[in-house]
Amino acid sequence: MSNTGVVFPTIDLGELSDEILNQNLREAGERLGCFRVINHGVSLSLMSEMKKTVMDLFERPYEVKVRNTDVLPGSGYRFRPSETNPNYEALGLVDLASPQALNTFCDQLDASAEQREIMVKYAEAIHGLAEDLSRRLAESYGLADTTNFFKSWPIQFSINKCHFKPETVGKVGVQAHTDFGFLTILQDDENVGGFEAMDPSSGTFFPLSPLTNSLAINLGDMATIWSNGRLGSVKHRVRCEAKTSQRPLFSNSTLKIMPATSVIFPTIDLGEVSDEILNQKLREASERWGCYRVINHGVSLSLMSDMKKTIMDLFERPYEVKMRNTDVQQWSGYTAQSEINPYNEALGLYDTASPQAVNTFCDQLEASAEQREIMVKYAEAIRGLAKDLLRRLAESYGLADTTNFFKSWPSVFRIHKYHFKAEAVGKPSGVNLHTDWGFLTILQDDENVSGLEAMDPSSGTFFPLPPLANSLAINLGDMATIWSNGRLCNVKHRVQCNEAKTRFSIASFLLGPMDTDLEAPSEFVDAEHPRLYKAISHKGYRSLRMATNLHDGEALKLISYE
Ligand SMILES: O=C(O)CCC(=O)C(=O)O
Ligand SMILES: [Fe+2]
């Protein structure tokens, strides 16, 4: 070996004393950000089966491999040849903790049932190890209470294959980089070296020689951020080794515990054939996030685009015309841009289920006959979808009998035009943090201009819902939380100005019973789930919210039994 001097530590996870083990991990994490672990608890036969599985997956024809598309930028199949590494390819999967994502990955790559099972087991074992290491690191700093901080972080799985050529021996095939997640577990090739990490104190690269049955651990940028600079995000690269002239370097399955910045709100395919699976997905997303996108939603794409053109045109009306769109109830009519609200104007219509109200709205805004027809059709399609989603949610809770409970509820349009200016970038747009006050909102947001952000209720952090053409975003509001006795999440969200462009959105709210009280059906209430909220009509709840000016879901506390 030409580079001698630094030997990266090998840590025996079979060490009996937790204290010593945690200390060893911390020291290696701080000094080098990189180490090997042995006796790691991931079964050796599972590691070897997993290697066989990924080797086989790379043998799939190109057309099959490209089905492994990106979920996050660069997360799917990549074929990035370079001079040293002329056949570099990688397959990938986010989020390994999601059985659904794993299934999609296996489907894309025509994995056999056996391979699927191996992947599931491997994912579970590696995930467990990653969490164990993160917990031990936190404990080594005396942070016993926060040891679960990584619980909901997604895991990116990336499988790389390097085919080095004899003529490139000694050259770097995978350029020096740090991992962008928190912690990476690397099952590198037990026969072929090439992995090198940098000693941060000298800036020199040293090999991490292959070691059978071990796993390599790298700490990434998020670990450095989290530890306020204590833990190293190790720079590493892969070099083409002499051996590779005889045999290709088959390298590594990499797991990353990624930072919460990569939270992805679910996208649910409403074309799913099994009602049971679909209802379950809707329920899970509604409980966990209160927010998701739907595709194949049945609202015709040409109708969506006609509706967008219609509202763009309506916003072009002179101020005096737009002012005719007066309130029917609080905040239901036109709000203009103003000094305190410089970037947002909005038109509104209560109630889209009433042909008369739609007509009045169209009269006020001098809509053409054609625009009127589009509005009517759009309102009908969106209302149908909202009811379908509600029926499915009710069914997912086994409430088949009550699936019509929303039949006579009114629906509201709130149509936004955001005048984002360069000076507003990074600022709130005028639609500040709030929960929706109805039951369910269907949002046709701008397919080109971002801005919508929702809160991950488990961390309290905001994440963007990037635009997705032809999709609709769904939010659950306060009435859904009341009805479900707290099970459904009233998602907190806002719109931020990200770029100096004009953004349009059409929000359709299915509100709730105006004149009768809504309360959780008895199926949601038992000894473990005492009734949380007093029965209240939507009208009553709105008045409460308006009177108290509590728009982020806090008004629910005012009708709470506790
Ligand atoms: O414009 C958007 O994307 C969201 C608007 C919104 O949250 C609302 O109208 O309640
Ligand atoms: Fe909203």
From TrEMBL:
Gene3D superfamilies: B-lactam Antibiotic, Isopenicillin N Synthase, Chain (2.60.120.330)
InterPro entries with a match to the protein in the record: DIOX_N (IPR026992), IPNS-like_FE2OG_OXY (IPR044861), IPNS-like_sf (IPR027443), Iron_ascorbate_oxido_reductase (IPR050231), Oxoglu/Fe-dep_dioxygenase_dom (IPR005123)
Domain Fe2OG dioxygenase stretches: 408-513
Classification via PROSITE patterns: FE2OG_OXY (PS51471)
Keywords, in A-Z order: Iron, Metal-binding
Domain of life: Eukaryota
Keyword Iron: yes
Record-given protein name: Fe2OG dioxygenase domain-containing protein
Source species of the chain: Brassica napus
